[in-house]
Write a structure and sequence with these properties.
Helix 2 links the parallel strand 5 and strand 6. The radius of gyration is 19 Å and the shape is globular. By secondary structure, the chain is an alpha/beta fold. The chain contains 10 helices and 15 strands. Strands 1, 2, 5, 6, 7, 10, 11, 12, 13, 14 and 15 form an 11-stranded mixed sheet that branches. A 4-stranded mixed sheet has the order 4-3-8-9.
């Protein structure tokens, strides 16, 4: 018989223990090759790392010195699931809202590494994954309502019961600052872009910040031009629209301000964790009340740092790392990774 063990939101939690930051979304294990510049068919060894975008973002925020970062997600009742929860705690993330289910195995993700800009991903999470099995009953209403930052991702909207759980979470949140929607478009998880656009539209009206690249903005609002995409996101109701432009940097807009931050120079090794590091640093900037330009510059530097490293979660920078990179103007000051084929 199916057995799902969930967080019980009926158990009261003292206000002082409410996490100031809650992320919601994917969790799994990243198995990344230790041979670079070759396909997986030729790889003989892998590193095991905590993975999943929203989980990585929680780690990134915690590594910047923010206490009380929690995540709402799910893992399987298996060794990888037990390890994922242990690793969360080791990296400073509160796992009290992580469900465990025996319906699906903890997902794993492989990548290939072809620097400087080709990093194919292979998700093993079909037909579903534990993080998509979170339900409305698993949503800790008071914690979601009172968190200073609530971060959720587009992937979590792709299936039931996770979609309904997000509806419930955003109802609890009631468009409080800072409700951050990471557009996070992964087409392999959806039946159609039209379905995604409808659900994205509903969530944008209940968010205060939207973050995405140009392709993700196309799905969300039908625009790829950065300024038009940002304007369309603002028109949906958010207060801050952030559009990542790759080598052209990052555009951030409010109704009163427009900034463009150029990319931080780096020697790429594996770019897959850059967006998660960006997200963790964005959270950090919002928590500390930094101005928009400083926040985006620090987020850009954080992303560049992780792009120069192999893994995602355990590669997240400290505040001192970001300070050093901003002072030097490039990530090589940290002694970033160097790669050769089959190294």
């Amino acid at each position: 018989m199916l057995n799902v063990l969930t967080y019980d939101p009926s158990v009261s939690v003292a206000p002082s223990s409410t996490p100031p930051v809650i992320t919601m979304g994917r969790c799994g294990v990243d198995l990344y090759p230790l041979q670079v510049g070759v396909g997986l068919e030729h790889v003989t060894s892998f590193g095991k790392f905590l993975g999943g975008s929203s989980t990585n973002i929680a780690v990134a925020a915690a590594q910047l010195g923010n206490e009380g970062v929690a995540t709402i997600t799910g893992v399987g009742d298996d060794p990888f699931g037990r390890w994922a929860k242990m690793e969360m705690r080791r990296l400073g993330v509160d796992d009290r809202y992580v469900i465990t289910t025996d319906a699906y195995l903890t997902p794993i993700t492989f990548c290939e590494i072809f620097p400087p800009d080709n990093f194919p991903l292979y998700f093993y999470r079909r037909p579903s994954a534990p993080d998509l099995q979170i339900t409305p009953d698993d949503m800790p209403a008071a914690a979601i309502r009172d968190a200073r930052v609530f971060w959720f991702t587009g992937t979590g909207l792709c299936q039931e019961p996770s979609w309904s759980a997000h509806l419930t979470a955003l109802d609890h949140r009631a468009v409080a600052d800072h409700t951050i929607f990471d557009l996070d478009w992964r087409p392999m998880f959806w039946t159609s872009a039209d379905e995604a656009r409808h659900r994205y539209d509903w969530c944008l009206a209940r968010s205060t910040v939207a973050v995405g690249n140009q392709a993700e903005c196309d799905v969300a609002v039908g625009e790829t031009d950065p300024d038009r995409a940002a304007d369309a996101l603002l028109a949906r109701g958010v207060q801050i629209a952030i559009v990542k432009q790759g080598p052209l940097g990052t555009l951030a807009k409010t109704r009163d301000e427009r900034i463009v931050v150029p990319p931080t120079p780096t020697t790429p090794y594996n770019g897959l964790g850059a967006g998660d590091a960006f997200g963790g640093s964005l959270i950090d900037g919002l928590l500390h009340g930094r101005d928009l330009e400083t926040t985006i510059r620090r987020a850009s530097a954080a992303g560049a740092i992780v792009a120069s490293r192999l893994e995602c979660s355990t590669a997240m920078p400290t505040s001192n790392d970001i300070d050093r990179v901003l002072e030097a103007g490039h990530t090589d000051v940290l002694g970033g990774a160097r790669w050769t084929e089959q190294s």
